[in-house]
Structure formats: C-alpha cells, structure tokens
Amino acid sequence: MRKIIFSALLLFVVVFNAQGQDEQTSSDDYSKWQARFRVIAVVPQPGDNLPGAEVDISTTFVPELDFTYFFTKNIAAELILATTKHDVEVENGPDLGYAWLLPPTLNLQYHFYLGDFKPYLGAGINYTIFYGIDEGDVVGMDYDNTFGFSFQAGVDYSFNDKWFLNLDIKQLLISTDVEVNTGVGVLPVEVDINPLVVGLGIGRKF
C-alpha cells in the first residue's frame, strides 16, 4: 500500500511540475520558516526477528510538531519532533511490555509549486532514543539507541498567505539491538521497527 501511495505522489509531481513552474512568480520573496502541527499514525512493520516467532509492535496515534527552514524557495530542511509508546509482544510467547520512542528526524526536502498545492519529497536521518521501558513478563529489556533513515513525500495546500493544510507520509528505517533477560539467560535480538508514519495537520508560514 505504501508503495502505491509513494508512486502516486511521485507521478503527480513529475507530470504537473512543468505546469507548476510556469505559474511561479519571478519574485524571490518567500517565507523562510514554517511550522506544522499534525496528528500522526505510527505503524511499525517489524520483520521476523525471532526464529520461529513473530514480534508484534503496536500502532499508535500521537500529536507531532515540526519546523521547516527554507534555504531557497524549493530547498528546505525539516526537523520532526514526536514521541510514541508501543506495546511489544511475541506471538504465542511472553508479553515484552512497552517502550517509549523519541525519534527526532531531520529531512532535506525539495518543494514544487503547483498553484495552491505544494508537493514535496524528502530524505534524511533520525536518531531513536528508547526510554520509559516496561519489561512485561520478562526480567529485563534493554534497547540500544540507534540511527536510522527517513524517506518522505507530502503536499501542502494553501488557504491563504500564512495558513495551509498538510498531508505527509514517511517511511522510517529503524533497527535496534535488544537484550531480553528471561531470568535464565540473556537473549540478544535485532529488532526491525521500520514504522510507516502518516500525518495530517495544519501549518503556518513565518
């Protein structure tokens, strides 16, 4: 599903970019800063991390805040701030409690101008911090903080010169090394989280 969404957005940008370029004004005036407030759905897509068992990481909905700085009218950098809580379980196995994730993400973006619509593509890095860990049915859980990658596509729709609506889709590539203390030994596991993040919200230019 996410491949279809990304492909559709990319096709939209490619097909209509020429038309949008004709509609751009020759003025160099543009807002260098903008902020967005979104509600995001964070949908982890864990792989087969344990031999013979499937790890399930819960989906969560949270508010998110981001800030974007424009170096030029088309090129910008976006810093994303949000924190999420996820329950972790093993199919037909123990409850592994929950963990809070703080994954500040920095993306470099390219923005297109199609009248009131402004599609954009982005890519960048994130650093995920794990905290507030509950061990569930095991003796201990230890998650390593980790670097990952981010890929992004979205669109802004302007209501006026200051306010706009935003739809944003990100694919984060996050893996972490986990040590599970079962009480009889420590089991090292590499866990793929790889969340798909879909957000809808409003923004303001400054």
UniProtKB/TrEMBL annotation:
Secretion signal, residue range per the UniProt entry: 1-20
BP-aspect Gene Ontology terms: transmembrane transport
Presence of the UniProt keyword RNA-binding in the record: no
InterPro entries: OMP/PagP_B-barrel, OMPW
Domain of life of the source: Bacteria
Pfam families documented for this protein: OmpW
One GO cellular component term: outer membrane
SUPFAM superfamilies per the UniProt record, alphabetical: OMPA-like
Keywords carried by this UniProt record: Signal
Keyword match Signal: yes
Entry protein name: Outer membrane protein
Organism per entry: Bizionia echini
